[in-house]
Amino acid sequence: MHRTRRLGLSGLISTIEQFNNSTIQQSMTSTFQDQVQQFYDASSGLWEQVWGEHMHHGYYGPTGREKKDRRQAQIDLIEELLSWSGVEQAEQILDVGCGIGGSSLYLAQKFNANATGITLSPVQASRATERAQEAGLASRVQFQVADALKMPFADESFDFVWSLESGEHMPDKEQFIRECYRVLKVGGTFLMATWCHRPITSATGELTADEQQHLQEMCRVYCLPYVISLPEYEAIAGNLSFQNICTADWSDAVGPFWDMVIDSAFEPTVILGLLQSGWSTIEAALSLRLMSRGYERGLTHYGLLCAHK
User: pTM here?
Assistant: First the structure.
């Protein structure tokens, strides 16, 4: 069944490419951050229309075999991350890479807390602000355009720093985690979930040429400067004096997510939305199988890291 659908998607995208051939232009940007901004400016509206406010993986049980509504799976991921990290309360929350505010608003409501979300995308920040107003949370939840490598916040401003699938976009992983450490209050919690590549060990060996090519294509399409392994993130956190560092690999639990995304690409609203969203979004749809196959072959991993200051 999945094979037939994927071949159908390939044919569909081929038609879309031909339709857009005369209007496709490659974006010439001065910085990597510009590319990320433009990617999410173009695609966030379509994602919200199809998938709702949560722009991240879903949780399908420890082995990835639980069947559930795709949006519920995304809520479950948030709850499972909080349970795994032991976070039961927060007062001042920072959501790094907030998207259109899904996690920020959810966490603020859950903990009756103040929350700040940052993103490179003005489109996302504007929509997130609208959603906060619609939820009656505008006095407690704010969003702004800001660079996670140079956050506009004073030292020790937040007791909970949350980063859900934004680390992979950071062009300097060490500086990103250093900034998260800087703005975290003493005793506060840093929790991140991010796309990684497989660990490099004596048993598994270095990344092969084929694996490197796969990662390079994934990075190009999804505006990732590079990805690293979870042990590398752990080493960075340790060097920055984080305490009580815990890590986990949830690749099995979230792996089915990309097949769900592929299935959703056949909805008529998605086809129309792709035609209207521009080439970068169309190419991302073309490349959905890259992510699914990455999990299947054990190359793409979903890494968690929790630590305290």
Answer: 0.85
